[in-house]
Every structure is written in C-alpha cells, then in structure tokens.
Amino acid sequence: MQDGSPIVLDLSATRRRQWNISPDGTAALTISEVRRTDAGRWECRELGSDGSVRKVARVLDLVVGSLSSPGSPSDPYLELEGRRLVHQATVTVKEPQKLSLHCIVSGAIPPVRRIHWSIGEANLTSVSELFVEFSASEDAYTSRSVLALNVTRRVHGKELVCKVHHITWLQAAAVSASLNVLYEPSFSISREPGFGLPLLESMRVSLRCEVDANPPSDPIWVRDDGPLTVSQDSQGFLNFTPVAHEHAGWYRCTTHHEFGFFASFGYFLNVRTAELPLSSDDGNSQLSNGLGQSTNIGCIPDGRPEVTAVNKSLMAIAGRSALLAGQLCSSPRPLRVFWVVRHLVLKPGDVRHPYVAYNLTETEIPNCYMGGLELRRLQVEDSGEVLLVVKNAHGIADALFLLNVTQASSFSASSAAGVVRGCLLLTLLIPVCLLWLRQRIIDSS
C-alpha cells in the first residue's frame, strides 16, 4: 500500500516494481529506478480470507530527492517586512501595532505542512496561514507561514518561536526572535497605611508611585494646589514624617518620557484632625424639623465647612444599588465638592457608570445642602471607604462612609423597613430618601 492505496505492479518487461513471498511468509517489494511518484508512506497489510484487514505493518516513509535537491529542507528563518532576521534577533516595535511575520523553509520534498507558532506559553498557530509553492528551478517546495501579531505591552520581552516539522528530520527545527515593545507610561499608586484606613495627624504616611513604561522613566510627584512641602526619593516614595493637616490636598504622579509628558489621575490626601468642639449654646440655632421636634445645628467657629455622613456605615447587596447621602453646611458657599470612590473623583452632576453623583439639593437649614452618590450594580470589590470632600474659602472638611457589599439572593423586607424609618426621622433628607426608595422598589420588582 502506498499512501493507503494498493500499488499497481509493473507488468512490463522492465518490471520496475515486483514483489514475492518467501516460504516463511515474508513479503518483499522491490522498486527499481525510484521516481518521485514512489514517494509516500508504504505499508504492508495482511488480509483474511474474506478480504478484511487482519494486520497492518508500517514499513517506511519514502522521500525521493534528486542530486540537486536531496529532499531535506534548509533551516527555517524569520522574515519581517521583506527583511530576513537572524536567529534570536530582537524586534523593536511601538505599541499598539500589527506585525506580519513570515516563517520560511525551502528545499523540501515532500513539502513542509506543519509549522507552529508560539509566544511564551501561548500557541498562536491557529491565527497563522500556511502557503506552499513549488520551485521548478530548485525542484523542491517552499513553505511560508504568515503570522499576524497584535503587539501590546503584554508581549514585551517574550520570545516568539516558529517550529517546523518535516518527515526527514528526527526533531523539529526552530527559529526565534525576542520582542522589545515600546509603550507609554502607566501609573500604579499605593499608600502606607493602605487605602481604606483613615489618616490622622502625626501619623507616618508614604505615597508610592510606580511607572510602567518602555523605555523606563522616573516618577515625579506634584501637588495640584501648590509646591511640595516634603521630599521624594528616586524610588517614587513621597514620605510624610509625620503627616499634618496642611499636607491635605490633591497629588498626582507625573513622568517625562521619550513619548512626552504623562500624569496619573489625581489622588486626594485626606488628613483628619481631632474633632473640634461645637459652638456654645448661644451660638446654636434651633429649626423646626417638621415633626414637632427641634434640631440643633452646630457650626465650626473657624468657618470651615461641616460635612456629615447620613448613612455612615452601609451594608449593601452585590448586583443591586446603594445610595450614600451626605449633608454639608458651609458659609460661604462651597467652592468644591467631590466624591472619592475607589480610584475615581466625581463632582455633583457627574455620571461615570456605575457611579452617579447627584446635584446638591438645598435643605430647610440655611447654608446647608444634601448630596447623594448612587452606586449601581454593586460588586464585592466596591467595599471600602468612600469620601465626601468639601472645600470653601476657610478650609476643607470631609465625611467618611464605610460600604460593605455582600452576596445575597434577595433584599429583605426588614432592610426596606429600616430605610423607611430612617427617612421618616430625617425629613431634611426627603429628596435623597425618595430617590433611595424609588431605586429599592425598582430593584426588588
């Protein structure tokens, strides 16, 4: 059998193909004047009396070459944009870009039909194309595998390997190249103590910025509202030893890179001070709260704003919505109001899904407002600290919210009832409470 088909015996006078069976049952096939048509896989099959195959013996894979082309292919090589690359070459390219790499092997009989691509642990063969051509001048085949590679920073420093298999080789031959991917800086900011822990005056605090870029560049801390008052080191650390209230403000990490100037998102360093005493009774005002009760509103005597977290500690359910409500009082009117959640900073009116910061609503109390932050489609990762930061001409104040998101199958009626009772006791927060109830009704429907 040749390539699974019965052979046709040569009955001419030359009898180029002939076979015989010896007395011990050994069958032998003799081929004279071997030709290209004799190439292929040769097998011997033993048939039963009914014509069924009883046994198959693989004899050999026959490769027929010539004096000019012996059949064994030359070593493979890589080609990029028509340029032949040396083995283990370094290819430098800027992110993002699409490369067309060719793996070429020539002088093969039969043609090479197994060429595999890999980068790191990933097999890329499925996104390559194989082309086979016959060269009459070489009397042999050339195989070319073309790989379209989307280059990103994830493949930086990895080795791209082309592996070629041929019937005449005991082992596959391989050729490779290393990828040097140039990419713009990205920033990673960390803090000690970790995010989520409140910072108090006199604590030791460190901010660290790490810049991921190729070629590398150094991190440089800047302060948005003035010059830095503490030193930074070459490793990206900004050390406050200790931190003081005047260090509170917006910071960001920057870098001067070969591709330009880059900066991270702003980070608000919130430094808490000891609670200030409220003004004396003579300075307090009493306002009716609508339920026949009276509410004492304390004002900070130095003119800084006062911020209160209405639902300071909130348990929420993953997949649903939560609303954080904060009351802020400021005279003069606040210059800036920000919600700080995870890595985002939102102003009233901003919508950055899944976060919605509602516009401020005036309350019955003079110079006081209500603000709300809705977190939609909550995830467990949303758990942690959320800040409401208010600034006026006299200073900065903030309120801390602690959000705990848990997995649950349904929203309990007791939780809903608790919200209703809270709203009845906080008529100053009617707009926010109505919004909360409306969202809960939608979620539970």
From TrEMBL:
It is found in: Membrane. GO terms for cellular component: cell-cell junction; plasma membrane. Coiled coil: none annotated. Keywords: Disulfide bond, Glycoprotein, Immunoglobulin domain, Membrane. SMART domains: IG, IGc2. It is a single-pass type I membrane protein. The keyword Disulfide bond applies. PROSITE patterns: IG_LIKE. Residues 76-180, 185-257 form the Ig-like domain. GO terms for molecular function: cell adhesion molecule binding. Pfam families: C2-set_2, Ig_3. InterPro entries: CD80_C2-set (IPR013162), Cell_adhesion_signaling (IPR051275), Ig-like_dom (IPR007110), Ig-like_dom_sf (IPR036179), Ig-like_fold (IPR013783), Ig_sub (IPR003599), Ig_sub2 (IPR003598). GO terms for biological process: cell-cell adhesion. This is Cell adhesion molecule 3 like protein. It comes from Argiope bruennichi (Wasp spider).
